[in-house]
Design brief:
Rossmann fold, 39% helix, binds zinc ion, two-stranded antiparallel sheet
Amino acid sequence: MRKFPLQLVSRAAQWCEPLLGLFFPNVCQLCQKEPATKEEGYVGEGCRQGVKFIREPMCDRCGLPFDGAITQHFECSNCKELDLAFKWARSSVAAKGTVLEVIHRYKYNRELWFEPYLAQLWLLGARETLAGEAFDALVPVPLHPHKQREREFNQAERIVRAVAEEAGLPARVDLLERVIPTRTQTKLDRKERAANVKKAFSVCKGLDIKGQRILVVDDVLTTGATTSACAQALLEGGAGEVCVWTVARGL
Ligand SMILES: [Zn+2]
Ligand SMILES: [Zn+2]
């Protein structure tokens, strides 16, 4: 279908980049009513207000937030049911309202100008943990090449590239590959999701990750089945420990 050499397109985009700034008004792309800059991902102050950062108490394993007081070690029913391979998963914000709209438009409509905002959310949530715990690399959840061709980009990979420098960690976008194209997860229940993705990932041949501590990155975590399958593949490939940080958490 594609008649244009991609390089030419991306070179044209680079050329146009400074010009785009002239044509893109500094207006929030959600409400169209308040100022917002390119650096802010065109999400204004007002629209940011309703975004809910995830705080304690939460499930120790998957980071699912809870109302009320939990004072001791706690695992939610989802985590008891699934045999999750990651040590823990956390997300910066709840996947609803503004955040959900931004992620959908970013992912499915290619509204890439939202990217700085998603990167900021990821960093705001993860910063404190990253300062206190040592990781060796950030690894995005890979898309199968078929799907990546269809969508033309992998949102997880783009988020990893956008946060890596500030996170102070290498972006290892070459580490994992999706070896089996999986059915879309949205209509499956949690056990079906786990079965669907179980053997979908593999560490690329010839890469040594022995003993490494890896942080897997994605846009949204729902049941944790996909990121757990990534963690499983990384552990089988020699990683010492795998944790997960996503921008948003499906509740
Ligand atoms: Zn707004
Ligand atoms: Zn849990």
